[in-house]
Amino acid sequence: MAENPAAKFGTMRGKTPEEAKFFWTGGPVEVAPRTWFASQFSGCTAFETDAGLVLVDTGTRQFAPMIAAMLRQKTQAPVHTAIYTHGHVDHAYGLEAFLLPGQERPRVIAHSAMPARFARYAATARHNAALNARQFGGTVEAQSNEAYASFGQPPVPPDTLYDDRLDIAVGGVAFELRHCRGETDDHTWVWCPERGVLCPGDLFIWAVPNDGNPQKVQRYPWDRAKGLREMAGGAPQALCPGHGGPVIGDPAMIVRMLTETAGFLETIVSRTLAAMEAGSPPHVDIVTGIALPTSDSPWLQPIYDDTEFLVRNVIRFYGGWWSGRPSELKPAPRATLALEIAALCGGAIALADRAEALARSGDLRLACHLADFALEAAPSDPAVQAKVAAVYEMRAAAETSLMAVNIYNSAAAYAKAGRPFA
Q1: Average pLDDT in the 280-284 region?
Q2: What is the model's pTM?
Q3: Domain 332-416 has CATH 3.40.50.1220
Q4: CATH class of the structural domain 5-261
């Protein structure tokens, strides 16, 4: 039995219908004539043409062999062209698994911003591995050398780059590639008009869009919204997303999914900008003060990213890095501040006790502030460690998005190890 990829990505509970859609694993599904979709955590679409296969995305190094085995049930054509929708490790690193023995190196197409992404990954490999450790519920120490090595150039890097748009034909089949910033600045969506198939990459993922991610670089929800509306204009017959299962033969539903997601993002952006225009208050007051949009649609549930985090990325783009709170412009070291607050409160254990009491009463946001101070003031105190870990375990249990759940679980793991979250 193939290994379940969800097990490799931390707390991916997969209990609700909404979660099941995001973590859909399966295939090959025929989405159009001579066109198949398969997914192991991330999706891959294979278009068979008279000149060979056109692949849109290739999965991770680890899961690509599973995806390739599924697609090879349907076609033994060599890979003519691969298109990387963006440079994340779950989309651009698995091409080798799809290549037939002795075949020529395929053309690999990507946006012109992608090489800079790979260079950044190579320059910050340990940093990125640490971010992913926390994002998926672990600690930096749990990372292996293999995890560090996974950041950098993919095994088969792109050899054909474009800027805004690129139209190609392979074996008589036309493909339209369009650039659209969203989760990344190097994103491409692919439209095959002859077969009515849309491949949006991670511009659509069966969840609240991943335009907030608290540990990663700038993201662009306003541009994603424009791109989604442009995609909807083609009334696709099949949608093959970056994550989750395909939608086939229901253009009205696909258009609704794309346009509702665009409207959701536009609401976040407009409300955030309106709050910023009201005197540029401290960022936390914007985040906690605006009404976040919600949806009953299964493709707009906050199961991976958190809607609140998207607000942060809008603020970051328009408002810089300073939080707007005067003391945080040139702050004291965290441990120094924590020791002073602990002294005023009667010791770190008093802070930890109060944090635990607040958490049990339901005020988890305030509880976590006090828990941080307690652990930073007395990281080697076993009682403080236990209480802080308990606070963050309660916080994780109350969250819905994988981002928040796993970062809080990571904070609990650090607390148990006697270390402030770092």
Answers
A1: 94
A2: 0.92
A3: no
A4: alpha beta
